Every structure is written in C-alpha cells, then in structure tokens.
Amino acid sequence: MPWIVLLPSDWAVRLLSVCEISISALIIDYFLSFFWATRVMNALLLLSVLWCASTCTHHLDLTALSQVTWAAFSICLLAVPSLFQPELRIALVTFGSKKRKDLDLEELESFLDQLTQSVFRMANHRVGGLIIIEDEDSQERISSQLVVLQAKFSQELLETIFTFGTPLHDGAVIIRGLTIFAAAAILPLANDPNNPLLKSMGTRHRAGMGVSQQTDALVIVISEEHGRVSLLKNGQMTSGVKPDRFRSIVRSTLSAVS
C-alpha cells in the first residue's frame, strides 16, 4: 500500500489496525449470523470456554490442568466439521452465492415458532403431513401439479390444509420464503430397487425422498402412523427429530435461501 507511506508512521499503524479489526469483525459477524440459535453456536461457546480455561491454566503454571483442557479443546475442534456438516455446508454454499437478502429476524423467529409448534402438534395428534421448504435451485422443479395459494403462513392455515377430508389435504405443502406458496402438490415417488430403505417407506416418505434426491429442498414428513417427524435432505433421512433440532435445521435452511 504505497499511500500508507505518505502518512506518519504512528497514524499508518493505527489505520492498518482499525482496518484489520473491522474486517475481522465483519467476517466473524457474517458467519455467526448463520449459526445463531443453532447447535453450532453451543459448540462455539464450548470451544471458547475450553480455550479460555486452557490459556488461564497455562499462565497460572497449572501444567496438568492446562494439558487436559487443551486436549479437550483440540478434540472438540476436530469433531466440529463432522458433527455439524449440514450447518457448515449451508453456510459455505450461501457465502458463495451471488445474492443474499436478509430475512427480518423477528419475522423469521415468529415463523419458526409457528412452524415448529404446528408440525409437532400434528405429530402428537397423528396427523400426517408433507412440507417442502424450497431453495432457489428447487423452485419450479418440484411439481407442476399443485394449487397455488401464496398465503401468509399461519399455524391455523397449515393445520387446516392437512386436516383429513379437506380439499387440499392430499399432497404436499410448499413453503417459499416465509409463505405457503402452494398446497396439494403431487410429487414423484423415489423408486430405486437397490435401496432397501424404500421398501419400508410409505407413500408420503417416498415422495419426500424423491424430492430430496432431485433438488436441494428440505423436506419435512410427519408420520400419522408413528407420530414421528422426519427431515430429508439430499437423499438422506433423519427420523425422530426433536423440536430443538428441527428448528435449528429449518432456520439454517431459510438463512441459506434468503
């Protein structure tokens, strides 16, 4: 930076320090925005505590304790990429995308609260459901047989759609952004004779698997038989998802789409 030479040495050092700190803060804030209120955030807090403990015990000459805390920090650090691969992948993919619109935080949290409550209330009452949360690449590729609603999301609307006997209950609900874009979507079924898992799946799960294999959308399946909530992404299914984990994955998906 030749122009730095024109400044007094102390001013140049201060300016470079301010730039370095500002850029570092922006990078940290950018990545933390993806992981806030997710499992990754808890892991980062744990790593911070272990690092601080290791540093403090080292300066206090508590050799044995310092080695133990440093070993724990190293093990946890190595485990993060494998344990939190879905969240990290979403963050990296979004970081490389060409455009990013920030969702209103309060609106997003309200949506997550309502969706989580509705999905698990349906599961508790053995009401089946199939919900697709679109990403940018999956739009227009999921289904052409659907009823377009473009309605503001609400618990009452979602649960009414999946109530047995209503005109739109048979098929999938498609969520685009924070709205119910469509309902009664007819989906192609996954049909792989070499996949033994498909033989034990019902129609709803096979339809969800088919979408997850063909697109990057997140698929939510509510089993009316077992009352379980399953998530499907990239051809992989996670069954028996709990509310906290469900909320975390949906939040990461919506953050990546926005």
From TrEMBL:
Name a GO molecular-function annotation: adenylate cyclase activity
Family annotation (Gene3D superfamilies): DNA integrity scanning protein, DisA, N-terminal domain
Catalyses: 2 ATP = 3',3'-c-di-AMP + 2 diphosphate
Q: Which domain of life is it from?
A: Bacteria
What keywords is this UniProt entry annotated with? ATP-binding, Cell membrane, Membrane, Nucleotide-binding, Nucleotidyltransferase, Transferase, Transmembrane, Transmembrane helix
Regions that span the bilayer: none
Q: Does the keyword Nucleotidyltransferase apply?
A: yes
Q: Which Pfam families match?
A: DAC (PF02457)
InterPro entries the UniProt entry points to:
C-di-AMP_synthase, CdaA, DisA, DNA_integrity_DisA_N_sf, DNA_integrity_scan_DisA_N
**Which intervals hold domain DAC?**
85-243
EC number(s) of the enzyme? Answer: 2.7.7.85
Q: What class of enzyme is it?
A: transferase
What's this protein's family per the entry?
A: Belongs to the adenylate cyclase family. DacA/CdaA subfamily.
Q: Tell me, in a sentence or two, what this protein's role is.
A: Catalyzes the condensation of 2 ATP molecules into cyclic di-AMP (c-di-AMP), a second messenger used to regulate differing processes in different bacteria.
UniProt subunit comment: Probably a homodimer.
- What this protein is called in its record is Diadenylate cyclase
